[in-house]
Here is the input.
Amino acid sequence: MAQDQDQQPTEWVIEDLEIDSATLGETWRLLVQRPCNRAAARGLPWIWLLHGRNGSIADMRPLLVAIAGAMRAGDLPPAVVAAPDAPDDHRTSWWIDSDHLPDGAEGIPPGRLLERSLLGDVLPSVEARYGAPDGPASRVIGGISMGGGAALRWLLVRPDLFGSAVLLSPGVFERLPAHGSAMRRRDVVDVEGSIFDSGRYAERLHYPTLLDAVDPDRPPARVVVLVGDEEPVRLDPVDRRDLELEAARLHAALKIHPAFHPSLRVVGGGHEWALWERGIVTALRILAGREPITES
Amino acid sequence: MCSVTGDAARPPRLGWAVEDVAVASPALGQSWRVLVQRSARTPAQVPWLWLLHGSAAGADQMRPLLRAAAESMDAGIVPPMIIAAPDAPEGYRSSWWVDSAYEPLDDPPDPVDALGPRAGRQLERGLLGDVLPAIEERFGPPLGAGARTIGGISMGGAAALRWVIARPDLFGSAVLLSPAAYEPAPSDDSTARTTGAFGVGPDRYHADRFRDLMHYPTLLADRPETMAPTRVVIIVGDEEPAQYGDGKRCDLDLEAARLHAQLKVRPDFESVLRVVGGGHDWPVWERGIGDALRLLSS
Here is the structure.
């Protein structure tokens, strides 16, 4: 995968692609940022970035631009970046496979196999176009907010695909969502007629449950969690769930697990794009072992 | 960062000097040592920062932080302030800066173990009632709480948190570096449980005493929310060691996030949290003091 130093790509282009997915029965849109010289993409690591709830790849474009700027400046090692766009009626579906079969009353569309489609159809097909990375050690999964929750899931359950993760203001929760929370009402569409099934949630997104199943002897994965200190207050009957507090809980859980090397940064800001555009570069720098420019 | 460069546009150096001062304290029954960093070229009315050292440490270990703060002030990143770093009395370096009610049945061994128990003394009363007014008077006219910040490292950060909540008459803001803000109880191997700081009578540690003096939700419950907002800056490293207290995780980076969540919803506080790379050690604090003071004033 190593390239000669004098062949390092310096100019980057963003392609807007459509990829057929047999599993989904339709096409996925995604952005791929690669060297202008297409051949220079061969052998580069890949970074997959998932957008947040109600987000889209349009939101992700500035992050790709920020990454390209940092690579051009030599602040980040070169990598191909891919950002998929969740299907229109599933922008709040946590990038997971859902078996939800609604009765139609709530206007929620039937569940779809987003994860299986993205990881099984789209990822291999897109990477094959430019040259796949050299195994999971050269593939990063990243995400913002809801996308950070899914990125954590994939890091934990798909070590065959992903060797490290960058989680920006991740939507991760140490405990199951409280009754009445938005997550139960709309976000995780689920088994048959039930919109939210606790067992399914635990099995898919609840990281303490997923961590229990992680082999402590597998190769250690680096995880960088970055979040702002002005996250909205999330009250809960038992305890607070503000995302910077949840990030600290996640960090504490990963810290004592031998299969992870976590880093946590809390910076100034809220749940917002200004923070993520700066934060993605900071997080990737930490992942690359380059101590970041001081962030405030 | 507060690195000093040869930038010609930088404000002139103020010529900060550290004085080693001793002040008698009737409440303590002996004198206190305090390092005071000031500049003869600043006006008398500059604000004060009182900076408390951590467990088993002393004021002399705070000198690199005083220097880092002076560099930030010289670089114009931080407004000028006088910094006072009191030295906990020998034998009481791990006593959490509180008034202790511990009365051991036996005399302590000689030589004294820095982390071992000793008969309780009135550290808080001595420092806040005797030392603070005497020192400040020596260098200028008395200033209000709005011109006085309390700060501290680790154990000193916990005491600083107590004082910014419970003594709004004295302190208008706080900088907490890796504060040992344990909630609800100190970690199993904390000096809070061993030195007698929170002892009562012959018992070296009393959970009720810790709750009354140091448990910040308890302190917050006693403070009216209608007071003017107090700014608190918390900086901690993400490599804090894993700790457990009564079976619960209480790593100080996690505790800092919990504290921030509690302060965030209070109208009488403005909390700022930064988690940086590093452990429970001096590189975090030497970088952190300049950042904390900058965030305090921004």
Q: What stands out?
A: The CA atoms of residues 188 and 247 of chain B lie 9 Å apart. Confidence is low (pLDDT under 50) at residues 1-8 of chain B.
